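Quick one - first record:
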Amino acid sequence: MPRPIRSTLACWSLAAALTAPIGALAADPPADRSTPRPLPVGPLTAPVPGLPEIPQVGPRGTLGPDVYRRRRQALMDKLKTGAALVVNEMKFEGDREGMDFYYLTGIDEADAALLLQPSAKPPPFHTIAREILFLSALNPEEERVHGARAVLPSNALEVATGIATILRLRFLPGALIDACVHRGGLNYVGRFVAEPRPRPRVMDYYGKTMERTYGCKVNDLNGTLARMREVKEPAELALMRKAIAYTAAGHAAALKAIRPGASEFEVKDALEAGFRKAGAHHLAYDSIVGSGSNSTFLHYPKDDRTMKAGELLLIDAAAEAEYYAADVTRTYPVSGKFSAEQRTLYDIVLKAQAAGIAAARAGVRVADVEAAARKVIEDAGYGDYAIHGCCHFVGLEVHDAGDYDAPLPAGAVITVEPGIYIPQRALGVRIEDEILITSGGSELLSGSIPRDPAEIERLMAAGR
């Protein structure tokens, strides 16, 4: 009886190694294909008319597999030895989280995992691949609900992902034990999270591996991927600028829907329709649209109130482009014109934001930007009403990975978003923009979305 195929032809020896006793000699492997190339395709493999097309896993965006391959190599260069597991924990629960795996692969398939082993020897002497993509097993009943998935072996899948060794998840526990025994242990390159947030799944995989070995070492390299993700590549910045353009279109549409007697959800519908019409496929996070007293709640979720003349409307909403997020907040007068007290408060927040932006440059810390913005608010007497920090990283996650204790590097993107919230007067003002950190200062990325109060009033008057 022929042995079932458990991996692609290029990595058959890995499956053999993982199912054999630890330390057993492997058969001579074929030459490694660390960069997969298309293989010849037989004429009988052509799709049959009328049968469903099987989708392929792989980067679907504009970056391409070479970008992700360079990132994986950069991470392995930092590891030197041992193995690092990165599990896809991508989710959207109000905002997008868990994007380390996507950053390294461009793949959004649930439950997938990536194992990187920099110490694996190059061809022709290796028996274990340096990069291994693990995919969950096929489940025909699940696929009838969620759609068809790729079948292994698949050279087309290897070429699409840029990863030559692709296995099912059942081989991952053996690969981790092999890494403990032969590769110098395991490396933790993710972030630590406190309760009550779920523990990263990598920790569960590592914990089970340590239970099955003696003396398996886990090297604490926490934050390594977060620091890599801080500096945005030109192609990433292009996608973030596109997300901001989508966001600007949505805010322009929202301005035309703001009027006394309209509901918050009418504005929200116009806003998000504007994102989609401009080309956005997804929200960066659940839109926040709060008027009157609702403007004083940071993450007001209901958007079911009818707006009244003389109130403020706070909109914190943005779109994504290929999972790269924008993050923008604006505060608008429902009647189309700020009252004297609204304008006073708005001008303080705008001045605080300007001070934060002026302080931002490579080499300073997020806390320095925060201090510059907060000083303006405290000097005006509203320190107790500024109830959140002013800044966070933005990228594949709206609250993106990054090192808040280290000096900002050129190429990082952060928000500057001071706010003042006075519940007893139903006044909430927040102004949030994205800036790109440069060596000599910063670049305002979201400046196309009006924030000058006179310009806002002019645009609202013209749209009525």
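second record:
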Amino acid sequence: MKCMYYLAPSLPTSSRISEDLRDIGIADWLIHVISKDESGLKEQKLNSSNWLETHDLIRDGFIGANLGFISGVLLAGAVMLFKPFGEETPGVVFFFVIVVATLFGAWVGGLIGMNSDNKKIQRFKKPIDEGQYLFLIYSPKGYGEKVKQMMAERHPEATHVATDNKFINPFARVRRKKAALDKT
């Protein structure tokens, strides 16, 4: 499932885009809008983006878990080398040292991610702050061209700024359309 990013200039345009997307078969739960004007989105009954789309909880949690795992392996190696619990330390101790360090790293990374903007959305912060509306349109297989065609025909004022083949993967690259973003 691809995620297509479109910038719309106004709330009425955003409402019409959402209606037209529903008309071509895109379900409501596949259309999310990021905006400064959250109350306007609710007023127009548009789906606001969810918390995982706007924050880096998953990405930073994975990074923290990896750093925690590496630290846990190093700590388990130090326990094995220095033997602070005696000569007959059971192997399960080393396993739990690694597991606890990994979980702690994931927890700390998640806390950091809760406080930071999603790296994929961050590049669109300026247009959003200027009052534009960023659409995240998750197109099911076979609908990508329908969405692009409909948007080009009915909403030339909306700009296709990027496509993400895997929005779920927090480390995937977003193919940004530089010329389109420079116009905004």
